[in-house]
Amino acid sequence: MAEVEETLKRIQAHKGVIGTIVVNAEGIPIRTTLDSSTTVQYAGLLHQLTMKARSTVRDIDPQNDLTFLRIRSKKHEIMVAPDKEYLLIVIQNPSE
Amino acid sequence: QKKNISLRLTMEIVYVYTKKRSEFGRQCNFSDKPAELHVDILPDPSLTDNFIDRDPCDVAIQCTQEMSEHEVNTERFDCEPCGINHVEGGWPKDVNSQEMEQTIRYRKKVEKDENYVNTLMQLGSHMEHCIRQNNTIDIYQEYFEEEEIVEEMEGQPSAKTVNVFRDPNEVKRTATSLSWHPDGSCKLAVAYSSMEFQKVTKDMSYDSYIWDLENTNKPEMTLKPVSPLVCLEYNPKDSHILIGGSYNGQIAYWDTRKGSQPVEMSAVEHSHRDPVYKVIWLQSKTGTDSFSASTDGQVLWWDIRKMSEPTERLVLDPSKKGNLDNALGAFSLEFETTMPTKFMVGTEQGVVVSCNRKAKTPAEKIVCTYSGHYGPIYALQRNPFFPKNFLTVADWTARIWSEDIRDSSIMWTKYHMAYLSDGCWSPARPSVFFTVKMDGTLDIWDFLFKQNDPTLSLKVCDEALYSLRVQDNGRFLGCGSQLGTATLLEISSGLCTLQKNEKALATAMFERETKREKILEACHREMRLKERSRSEQSKEDEAKDGEAEESAEELVACAEREFYEVVEAEMKKRGKDDKKEKEKYEGKDGCKEKES
Fold first, then answer.
1. What does pTM read for this prediction?
2. First to last CA, chain B
3. How far is B342 from chain A (nearest CA, A)?
4. In chain B, whose CA is at the least distance from the CA of A92?
5. Residue B123: other Cβ atoms inside 10 A
6. Name one GO molecular function term (chain A) (predicted).
7. Contact B131 A90 (CB under 8 A)
8. How many CB pairs under 8 A join A and B?
9. Any idea which of B19-23, B155-159, B246-250, B585-589 has the lowest mean pLDDT?
């Protein structure tokens, strides 16, 4: 438990990181550093996108699997680390 | 015996008319007749000599299915983009998502799960790697930004229609004025009104619209004036404020943050008495000053903070007496922020009036006039690179003037088949300007390239084009048509990037033409002086002779004498030249004879 806390705190402390969200398989946000409405929005949308991305990768090659998803937009970068049961989402403003 | 014939239609309408049996006429009597042979043509073998057997025979056969082409256009589907509100879901059945306690308890339970801890440690380390990567190096960095890519001229200048914005109302009105949003090309404000006298119907809408360039289905914002707007301008200092001049002579201003109704309107008694054809924002500290012109002969200055009456008034009376009955109706205004004390007005009578705002007396306000057009001046603009030269668009020509020459323009286009309705300079290139005509064509002129014809002429639409506005980057332009269609065009980069030496060449051209006109003016003046002195001289002579009544005949006789004198002199000169030529040839012949 304590290591999880430490890890998440460390991630949040990195330069440019705007927010961190942990989502479970049903799309419920477990831990978040953003406000609840934004969290719900990110959780719902990115969960679906990750599922789609994963299914795309596996359709092309069934032995392959999605390891990481990065979405770079004009304002910031959304990084999603997927797992079978949980999703770690970090929003960062990259070094410009 | 009468026979009644009645017609009964499905709707139980019965019409009865009678006719006597005896009037029906006799019935036909058929009879049998044996067959008669009328014609019998027997085969004649001798006729085959007139024909030759054709071998081989060519026959085209088509074995495909016959198909027809049919076009179908579905009815316009109105879409509106809108956001979706997300609601939390996915909670298991026993947890009520609204209850904070339950959700917190659920979350704590998940966090204690061992799987959760392991997974998160692993994901966390992976994530940190990526975060550090982002912070170390920017993988999307532009390496060669500073290098300027030298663009070659891609051949033909061209323009293409990017978007078309149609008047959403049933009854279409003319798009009389367009104004671009000051911060870049994202919005276009279009003023709609019906310029045809007394053709306004009850259901004609008064609204004008602000369009977002991406969305052609629905205007972004509606402006609802009391009377249709003839002209509309964004405030270059504050992009939320727009000022509009309306058909009934009032001026109104809007704040887009405050909704569709005007924030304030000018008082009817102190406004114009005719439609306001042009309104321009002035350069001032407060950014609230503007001035307007109308065909009632007045130019009024307004401060939008106090619209109850104009701050200043000028009557366009060329006799400088401020007499409204004498005044020229104003159709267009020109104002350049680099010369804030001067402005120009284009009138209905085809005269451009140059005025000085800082003059002390109203008489001094009107500095000078430039005449040369035959019809109302629809557009008037100084060249953004050479403010001493300005463009006027009126009747069937567009003319370029120099401030110093009053009697004539220095350059002009040919007389077109259709009336020109609007025009403007390109803000990117000093030698390029645009005009639109009543036959729906847009002409792009580049007079350093070609002066007789436009460099590019495009048919934008079938109906007349009434207004034109170029965006500040010189690349996009909007044209408004009679049926309220605003077309957005993009022109090729060759027409909106400054060419090498262009400024120098344009300067040289303007100077050359100005000089030519100056010389012509001087010549005319001299001729006039000569005429005057000659007529004065002849009058003096007559006074000496004392025969005033015959002065006309004398003049005619004098003119005849002079004419014949000139002709004789010419003939003598030619005769001398001919003689010289003959002598030359004879001399040659003489030489030849000597040789042979």
1. 0.61
2. 129
3. 45
4. B131
5. 22
6. dynein intermediate chain binding
7. yes
8. 97
9. B585-589
